[in-house]
Request: fold
Amino acid sequence: MSFVVANGLTHWFGRELVLEGVDLVVDTGEHMAVLGDNGAGKTTLLRVLATALRPTAGRLQIAGLDAFREKRRLRHHVGYLAHAPGLYPALSAVENLEFFCDLQEVSRTRVEEALDIVAMTSVARRRADQLSRGMQQRLAIARAILHEPRLLVLDEPDASLGEDAAELLTRVMQGKTVIMATHDRALANRLCQRTLELRHGRSHGTATRLHVVT
Amino acid sequence: MNPVRVAIAVARKDLKSEWRTRELVPALAQFVVLALLIGNFGFQVDTHNASAIAPGILWLALVFAGLVAFGRTFAAEREQASLEAMLMTPASPVAIFAGKAMAATVLLVLCEVVLLPALTLFFGTPLSGDVVAAVLLATVGMAALGVLFAAIVARVRARELLLPLLTLPLWIPFIVAGGQAVQSAMGLPGSYQEAMGLLLDFDILFVVLTSLAARFVLDE
Reply:
């Protein structure tokens, strides 16, 4: 069953066309990687799919709902990891997550579980600005999964994660529908069943594992 | 989703961040003291003209301190790229706006805790409950407007220039009514009750209008 259905997603930033008629179908529980060079439109596509950005044209359905009309309802079901971690530097890892628990209206007991998934319990009380870049990325991932979303939209989740990135992301993505952007084709093939190639904002087709369209 | 809980969580987060970093309040407190000092030396203040000059200096210091305090509310979120994360939750944008406005109000009130006794020290004017009430009442409406415009300009490059240009004209009613209230509280002619009534009306009007507008400002 399709969980995400996008038709003709098009987006202009001023006079620049950054997404041009992207079509996409992602089934429930499927993991899809979005590949492409810098400036190919990966981040814009992911922001649209996460309902953070309304496209200039096109339609998007998530879980059968119109993603732009029902976006507030959908946000219970969508977890988004943006390109920048977007943490509060003066707050500890736990305080960062507790704040988002209050906004997501989920129990604060989820904080410990989320930190455990990203293997951060040992630095849970450390301020975000005292964490390494890799740890900040883990914390941002923990925030994205805090409310146990059904759809995860991850923009370069492997950035700064180090050697155990694949292992950590496997744990994070388990049982969820996932759309992730990455530059690492090997990681994409390991974690995702399908890949979507973007070039200059256009989709150059999807491919199943190990058969990326070039 | 309980909007009051969300607003309190946002305000608490902002105040906790300020408490840990002490970025804003100490600098603003120094600024208001320096503004009073300059006002004291710039005008030939004596016992006869102090109550006429002091309210003007008070509102000038308050207005510029407010611009800095409110300007930081959304600028910091944009710089940290944390605003998008907050807006990606199901929490109402109006509740998020209310929380930011509450925190900014508290920060400005902390500056006023320094400003008002310093005004008495430098100008010899009485520090009465009436003066405090007038300043607090004006702060509420000024914060609502200031934080709304701070949210609007946060995404543009020239935000430091745009914020005063947009905010100051709409703060004029607060400065006029607040100035009148403080002057009459300091013994100059004018109706204190009337000025306070006006301030309350402006507070209600602008708090309602900014709450309605906040949804559209923060939504995209």
